[in-house]
Amino acid sequence: MMGSWKFFSGAINNGAYPALLVEYVKHVIPAVSGGLPRILTILFFNIILALVNYTGLTIVGYTAVALGTFALLPFLLMAGFSILKIRPRRWIALGDRNRDWRLYFNTLFWNLNFWDSASTLAGEVERPQQTFPKALFSAGIITCLGYLIPLLAGIGALDVGQEQWTDGFLADAAGMITGKWLKYWVSVASVLSVVGLFEAQLSASSYQLLGMANLEFLPRIVAVRSRWFDTPWVGILVTSVITLGISYIGFENIINSANFLYALGMLLEFASFVWLRRKYPGLKRPFRVPMGSAGVVCMCIVPSAFLVLVMVIGGTIVFAVSGGLTVVGVMGYFLMKHCKKRRWMEFRKDEEEVAAAAVDGAEEGDGGGRV
């Protein structure tokens, strides 16, 4: 259940990025805002980036770092140029009292979730028990600053109506503060940041399918890796097909559906975490949260309440989509179980490969290694 919720939420979530890309590009090329040009732009975006993902995590990883650096730099420049123009009173102005709280909370949650998706790549990382906590901590700080600094700069330096703060306005704000050259840089950076996010999510989802196949929840064919790049090409293909189909529905429906499924998975994840801490407090694990049972319960209460809020405000369409995919996940589990029993499909590796993997794991000890 956890696997199906997390996979579907990831694949659906990735569909938001092509839709978002079109929103950015249409400011420069208005023709792609609808009809056949929009369809072809989304198709081209999905195919090209799926092929990049196929080339391997090393290329994807370094590309994401480069794109992230390029995307964050113009916002730092924007903040620097805005210092002399900032009026702190603008930060506390209430603006329009008519607010769409459902859109706000869903967008906020969408911008700050999917941190646990990195866990599906742990088998490809050396010493993940040391690397992951540092990476997640630093990424969390950079993410928060990446949102707060441009918003504080734009709101504080510009005296514009709230109605102007729509999709893509940060680029306009950069132009008003500094000049057109920074506006164009922010526009390009926005597009490239979408590329990086798409690649990261596609990698996480495809490697999750690989892990589920290795655990015998899915047929062995799903775990097949590319002969040239050692990437799970079947997982990339399956995820890309789902993402492509989802890309053509409305952006708000995409993020609402992804949020709901992700929230279901996170609630189950928190419940499992608390139960394992109480049932097996001495269980050996790569990384241990330095708290007792009461501490971990308190730590999970606040995010759990927010998860429930996001689910409650989801809406009828989101309930229907999420409920349908949950049923698909349950039926898929029993179907795979039946196929395994009847031997209609081949599952996992053969005994010789399993033994070899066990020997490799024993030799590597606590140092991590591939899965």
Textual characterization of the structure:
The chain is mainly α. It is 70% helix and 0% strand. It is built from 13 helices and no strands. It has helices spanning 2-14, 16-25, 35-54, 57-82, 101-111, 128-157, 169-177, 180-214, 233-246, 251-279, 293-312, 316-342, 351-364. Helix 3 (35-54) packs across helix 8 (180-214) and helix 3 (35-54) packs antiparallel against helix 9. The longest helix is centred in the middle third of the chain and has 35 residues, at 180-214. Residues 350-359 and 361-371 have low confidence and may be disordered.
Q: Which helices and strands occur, and which strands form pairs?
A:
Layout (H helix, E strand, L loop, with lengths): L1 H13 L1 H10 L9 H20 L2 H26 L18 H11 L16 H30 L11 H9 L2 H35 L18 H14 L4 H29 L13 H20 L3 H27 L8 H14 L7
Give the strand content: under 5%
Number of helices: 13
The best one-word shape is: globular
Quaternary status: single chain
Tell me how many strands there are: 0
Structural class by SSE content: mainly alpha
Q: H/E series, N to C?
A: HHHHHHHHHHHHH
Largest sheet: none
* Helix-residue proportion: 55-70%
Low-confidence stretches: 350-359, 361-371
Mean pLDDT: 81
